[in-house]
Write a structure and sequence with these properties.
By secondary structure, this protein is of the alpha+beta class. The protein has one domain: Winged helix-like DNA-binding domain superfamily/Winged helix DNA-binding domain (Arc Repressor Mutant, subunit A), CATH 1.10.10.10. The chain is built from four helices and three strands, in the order ααααβββ. The protein has a three-stranded antiparallel sheet. β2 and β3 form a beta hairpin. α2 crosses α4. The longest helix is centred in the N-terminal third of the chain and has 15 residues. The radius of gyration is 18 Å and the shape is elongated.
Length: 113
């Protein structure tokens, strides 16, 4: 890894980044968050999620999230992790609380008084 990465990434970010690069280089499925937690030694379920988001914000990776899976592109090499074998539909992830606007002729629901 070059010196520029060493300056911009923490140790745990580097370890997760290298795991993602390894998966992309070897045409493997993107490691899930539990696997990334084990690699780094995190106990909190959201820790590796936060690291992946930071790597995305720093511009090292691009992430496409689907309903149950995700694919990661390494920006430096433009290589993608493989599709998961169970991935049959490419429906993008809709974050919790997001509303989809659909045109309808129904009257809007009025709450009880």
């Amino acid at each position: 890894m070059n010196a520029m990465l060493d300056d911009r990434l923490t140790l745990k970010e580097r370890v997760i980044y290298e795991a993602l690069v390894d998966a992309a280089e070897n045409d493997q499925v993107c490691p899930n968050y539990l696997d990334l937690n084990e690699i780094v030694g995190y106990e909190s379920a959201s820790s590796s999620v936060d690291v992946v988001k930071r790597l995305e914000q720093k511009g090292f990776i691009r992430v496409v999230r689907y309903q149950r899976f995700r694919r990661v592109q390494i920006v430096a090499t433009e290589k993608w992790t493989a599709r998961h074998p169970s991935m049959h539909v490419e429906r993008l992830h809709v974050p919790r609380g997001a509303r989809r606007v659909v045109a309808t002729d129904r009257k809007p629901y009025k709450g009880r008084l």
